[in-house]
Amino acid sequence: xxxxxxxxxxxxxxxxxxxxxxxxxxxxxxxxxxxxxxxxxxxxxxxxxxxxxxxxxxxxxxxxxxxxxxxxxxxxxxxxxxxxxxxxxxxxxxxxxxxxxxxxxxxxxxxxxxxxxxxxxxxxxxxxxxxxxxxxxxxxxxxxxxxxxxxxxxxxxxxxxxxxxxxxxxxxxxxxxxxxxxxxxxxxxxxxxxxxxxxxxxxxxxxxxxxxxxxxxxxxxxxxxxxxxxxxxxxxxxxxxxxxxxxxxxxxxxxxxxxxxxxxxxxxxxxxxxxxxxxxxxxxxxxxxxxxxxxxxxxxxxxxxxxxxxxxxxxxxxxxxxxxxxxxxxxxxxxxxxxxxxxxxxxxxxxxxxxxxxxxxxxxxxxxxxxxxxxxxxxxxxxxxxxxxxxxxxxxxxx
Length: 399
Fold this sequence. Notes:
Layout: E1 7-10, H1 16-23, E2 26-29, H2 30-39, H3 45-61, E3 66-69, H4 74-93, H5 100-117, E4 123-130, E5 141-148, H6 152-161, E6 164-167, H7 175-182, E7 202-207, H8 217-234, E8 238-243, H9 246-259, E9 265-267, H10 274-282, E10 290-295, E11 313-316, H11 326-339, H12 342-359, E12 370-375, H13 382-385, E13 393-397
Helix pairs in contact: 2-3, 3-4, 4-5, 8-9, 11-12
């Protein structure tokens, strides 16, 4: 019989790093274990109680609210294996009337157990304690996580199983980052296809007199409002302004609306449903005027087409850097050990990729024209400029 020879086409391949990391990570929440223990049938009480004891001891021995262990404890792994086996037998014997909480915990635990079996340097195991101060109205708890850092080890055999794999994206820069993280073969061919657009179509300006770093947020609001207002006055039309968080978005939108109440504005909300997202996009009408405020990395920063006068410009008031927190700092350390460029691999490359994706909403066809304002002094740094599309003509503005 003829054997299949499979070729794989991966579109929007810049998302593969994060999606593969998520696929090969797993989290267990103490609240779910607590709920399952409270309602579990007698046959499951013993293994669930044993798992609870192992979990509690592990959390109690963790020296910090966020603790990374060299490897998952064997006692926890054994208790988790016993629990999944017992739940599996119970579900097989009682297929009708399955408790949804028990089923969800079972699936979570199965994924966790599978990743325990493949745990290695490509991942880390951490313990997080929540609400140590026992704030009123909030339950204390903990999470256990197997967190994939570099998905290359998992993806290499998948790539090798295909006769050929082609990855597409407008933002696969720098190539070594994606080669390292995805485990691409050494003989991978890289083709940088010239953009169909020209520098004359897009005016890119860097507002190097503004800092959007967290300590400088409040003082950045007035300059950002002034930049948006000046651009809108010079060329009225539809614009979108991107910010690093909903909090920053709300502050900037309120500042702008207060100073310029005559300019129509609309804002991305938290947890928008499909109709709300469609309503947000519907405000960008052909020949319309106004400014939409959105979060960088959200549903409006990638994968939407607002052609022609539906969108003529964007303001990006953030480098898109992932949040600085204990988890991301541990990932940075691991990436530094693996590749030497911990900061770039954890923060800079993913952040600028989101910026370029968001800016790409402005020019969608060879007849579109528009303006992008990159609002932060760090955009003028050489290491950042190198990551921007080579067809852009970038102008620095000092304010």
